[in-house]
Amino acid sequence: MPSPKEVYGSLAVLLTYLAGFVYLLWAVAPAAWLDKAGWTWYPAREWAVVVPCWLMVVVLLAYWSYAGLTVHLTPAFSSLALITDTADTASSASTSTDRYYHKFASPTAVPEAVDLPIDLVNRVLYPPRPRPAPTPTHTRPAHQPHA
């Protein structure tokens, strides 16, 4: 016995195909054929073009609205909310003098799920590199007296 989800899904697919077929029949069939088939009332043919165009515009506006809302809700680059927020899970040992991640040095220890400090993340992602000594780009020739 099929589950209700399968029955409703199959019914939705069949009704969608039926609605699409009826829409295409109404949009392209001559009015005489529809009258002969007993279909006496139907909307004006211009709606066959207007409704799909309107739906495409609605979909585009939905995408643009979602993108605009995302940009609007993103904090500014200078905001501290990019570093921490109200839902952060700071370590319980973060107030002590010893860093909390030192107590998990054992290979069998599983660290607690906490937000990592930004200085630690930066040190791991961007380790300090030795800088090469600057080289002169242009050397001035020694002053030569005129002979």
Describe this structure as you would to a colleague.
Pfam families: PIG-P. Keywords: Membrane, Transmembrane, Transmembrane helix. The chain folds into three domains: 1-42, no CATH class; 44-74; 79-127, no CATH class. The chain has four helices and no strands. The protein has helices at residues 4-28, 31-36, 47-73, 118-125.
Features:
147 residues, 3 domains, membrane
What is the topological layout?
Elements: H1 4-28, H2 31-36, H3 47-73, H4 118-125
Distance between the termini: 111 Å
Number of helices: 4
Estimated share of beta-strand residues? under 5%
How many DSSP-defined strands?
0
Rg, please? 35 Å
Shape: elongated
Number of domains: 3
- Main sheet attributes: strand count, strand direction, barrel closure: none
Secondary-structure element sequence?
HHHH
Mean pLDDT value: 82
Helix content: 40-55%
Computed structural class = mainly alpha
Give start-end ranges of low-pLDDT stretches: none
Domain PIG-P: 5-126
Pfam families: PIG-P
GO biological process, one term: GPI anchor biosynthetic process
InterPro entries: GPI_Anchor_Biosynth, PIG-P
In short:
It is built from four helices and no strands. By secondary structure, the chain is mainly alpha-helical.
